[in-house]
Design goal:
It is a single chain. This protein has 3 helices and no strands. It is mainly α and 99 residues long. The radius of gyration is 17 Å and the shape is elongated.
C-alpha cells in the first residue's frame, strides 16, 4: 500500500482517538464548549489542521495539555505528509532523468 495512504489512515485514527478523548475529558465540565461528540470532532480537526478557529476550546488543565499535544501532532503530520509528497515527486523526476 502507498505510504501516503498509511499516513492518512494513521492521522484519521489519531483524530478519532482525540475526539473521544476530548469528549470524555470536557463534556461534563461546566462552561464547556464540547457538549457533543461532533463538537469534539470539530475541535480536533480544527486543531490538527492548525486552523484553530477558537470557537471551541478546552477548559480543563488536562484538556489543554491534550490540546498542546494535538497542536504539535498537527504540525508534525502536515510536515511529514508534505515531505512524503515531495519525495514522491523527486523520485519520479529522478527516474525520468535516468531514462
Amino acid at each position: 500500500m502507498n505510504k501516503n495512504l498509511y499516513l492518512l489512515i494513521a492521522t484519521g485514527g489519531i483524530i478519532v482517538l482525540g475526539t473521544f478523548l476530548m469528549y470524555g475529558l470536557e463534556s461534563k465540565l461546566p462552561n464547556t464548549h464540547m457538549k457533543t461528540v461532533l463538537d469534539a470532532l470539530w475541535w480536533c480537526i480544527a486543531t490538527v489542521t492548525t486552523v484553530g478557529y477558537g470557537d471551541i476550546v478546552p477548559v480543563s488543565g488536562l484538556g489543554r495539555a491534550v490540546a498542546l499535544v494535538y497542536m504539535f501532532f498537527g504540525i508534525a503530520m502536515i510536515s511529514i505528509f508534505l515531505s512524503a509528497i515531495s519525495s514522491t515527486f523527486y523520485q519520479k523526476k529522478n527516474r525520468e532523468g535516468r531514462e
